[in-house]
Amino acid sequence: MTFNSLARGAALIGALALVPATTAGLAQVDGRAGPQFAKLMAVYERIKASYVEPVSDDVLIKGAISGMLGALDPHSAYLDGSDLQRLETMIDGNYSGLGLSVVMEDGAVKVISPFKGSPADKVGIKAGDYITHLDGKLIYGGELDDAVAQMRGKAGTAIKLTIYRSGRDEPFDVSVTRGVIELEPVTSELLPGNVGHISVNEFSRDVGSDVFAAFEGLKVKSGGKLSGLVLDLRRNPGGSLDEAVALADLFLSDGRIVSQRGRARGESQAYDAESVFRGDMAKGLPLVVLIDEGSASASEIVAGALQDHRRAVIMGEKSFGKGSVQTLLPLGRDAALKLTTARYYTPSGHSVQEGGITPDIRVPQLSDPDLAKRAKMLLRESDLRGHLINEASLKDDQLEADKAEDPRFKVTAEELKAKGITDFQLSYAADTLRRTQTLALARKK
After folding, report:
1. Distance from the CA of 412 to the CA of which of 58, 208, 303, 339 falls in 20 to 30 A?
2. What b/e readout covers 245-262, taking b as 16+ CB neighbours within 10 angstroms?
3. Which residue among the candidates 240, 297, 319, 367 is catalytic per the annotation?
4. Catalytic residue among 110, 116, 126, 322
């Protein structure tokens, strides 16, 4: 993929969130900013003249740009060279590495979520883990891009990660063998009781069509007698805006799906149902959407739309809470700005920023033996330094209310394992749908 095609076609809103650039021109520099630019030039000249070693203009200018963007929010960034190439490979959907979505928090690399089925996921790396060393080398205080570059590499090669996890007395090492990260965007299975389970692992190209095909396959497997459907968006940190709209549109026949509001002309847009697919493909079928703290951006758009339209019951844990939109703005042929330009809103006007999507039924992942320990270190958008403040003005006690203990969920991971349950959230969702179908049949008699 060339940079020009990337600039024209990329529309991602995940942990690396992008939408197509608008046609708005670059704003002219305010004349009142002149004295501030004089300070910048004075610092530049003093460094050039007096720093202990010669410094190239490229280093200073790139540092100044990165500093400006870093002062805004965690998602705006300057991209060139290898950084831009990594973005292109992410959009193409395959690269060699570990399969992690990470952020830099106060100098530390913190995991938002491992991609389902990735090498990192298979060795047990979890949301909220800190990566402190790579092959024994301390990466704290370094650049996130440098750490990401080190974790990527030729498939089949191994790298040792030192992990700090809340609740553990000491950091521990884990060896991960790099693989080609070409995740299946959509996987599906038929659960007992003719409950369909469709897992959306990433919002890449054609996810809407892939989910439709998976649903049709499940109908065939069930002999046309599906009793319910679980749409699984857990550990999905985002992806294509167009595909998020398409996925929600599969289950909606009218109304707003999502809107975005920005300051610049052209950054305020609305996306409605019936714009991609006609009708509700699963009309009349009970639907549960699973989310967790690793569900961000595109996942939150889908969950928020289906929740607001009361088309689905949202289960799991509160989502990550990333409700901002980034625009890719080319700077010549080999560089670009990834700049936050808008916030997005659910059909009811709720800003996802910070607050996230609150499930209708909070279901903890009791099959995770580290659940209680990890809960103390869950990472959401509101935890990131410099995050945008949400316009809902939610108070801390409201944001943390979902952590209150529920008497329904007392079973331990060991007890679940003995029963053969390795995914409690999925098991609970499927049981709910089976009970719903049983009650519906009873009412018909």
Report:
1. 303
2. bbbbbbbbeeebbbbbbb
3. 297
4. 322
236 and 168, same domain (yes or no): no
What HEC string does 110-150 produce?
Answer: EEEEECCCCHHHHCCCCCCCEEEEECCEECCCCCHHHHHHH
Higher pLDDT residue, 436 or 393? 436
Do residue 317 and residue 171 come from a single domain?
no
Question: Is the CB of residue 276 less than 8 Å from the CB of residue 334?
Answer: no
CB-based contacts of 423, cutoff 8 Å, min separation 6: 365, 367
Which residues does 235 contact at the CB level (< 8 Å), separation at least 6?
113, 114, 115, 116, 121, 127, 201, 292, 294, 295
**Are residues 210 and 122 located together in one domain of the fold?**
no
Question: Do 127 and 164 belong together in one domain?
Answer: yes
Q: Which residues contact 351 (CB under 8 A, 6 or more apart)?
A: 323, 343, 344, 345, 390, 391, 392
pLDDT in tens, 287-316: 999 999 889 889 999 999 999 999 999 999
- 65 vs 67: CA distance, rounded Å: 5
Catalytic residue (one of 232, 242, 292, 308): 308
Residue 50 tokens, joined: 């007096």
Rounded Cα distance between 102 and 403, Å, is 23
- Distant-in-sequence, close-in-space partners of 20: CB < 8 Å, separation ≥ 6: 8, 9, 10, 11, 327, 328
| Structure tokens given for 105 | 């928090």
Q: 253 with 122, same domain?
A: no
Domain span at residue 204 reads: 186-324+341-444
Q: Which of 157, 180, 203 is the last residue of a domain?
A: 180
Residue 297 is a catalytic residue? yes
Q: Report pTM.
A: 0.72
Q: With contact defined as beta carbons under 8 Å apart, do 343 and 323 qualify?
A: yes
Reported as a single tens digit per residue, the pLDDT across 352-401 is 886 789 999 999 988 887 666 655 545 444 444 444 444 333 344 443 44
Tell which of 165, 180, 195 closes a domain: 180
Sequence letter at residue 174: V
The pLDDT of residue 386 is 45
Whether residue 350 sits in one domain with residue 218? yes
